[in-house]
Amino acid sequence: MIPVPEGLLFGVAGIPHSCLEESSLKAVDQVRKIGLDALELEFVQGLKMGPETAGRIKLSALSQRVRLSAHAPYFINLNAEDRGKRIQSQDLLLNSLRLASAAGASDLVFHAGYYGLSSPEEAYQNIKHSLKEILSLARSEKIAARLRIETMGKRKQFGSLDEVLSLCRELDGLLPCLDFAHIFSREGKINSYRNFMQVLKKVEKKLGRSALKNAHVHISGVKYNQTGELKHLNLEESEFRFDEWLQALDDAGVAGTVICESPSLETDALMLKNLYNSLREKRIDSGPAE
Question: Does residue 167 sit within a domain?
Answer without folding.
Answer: yes
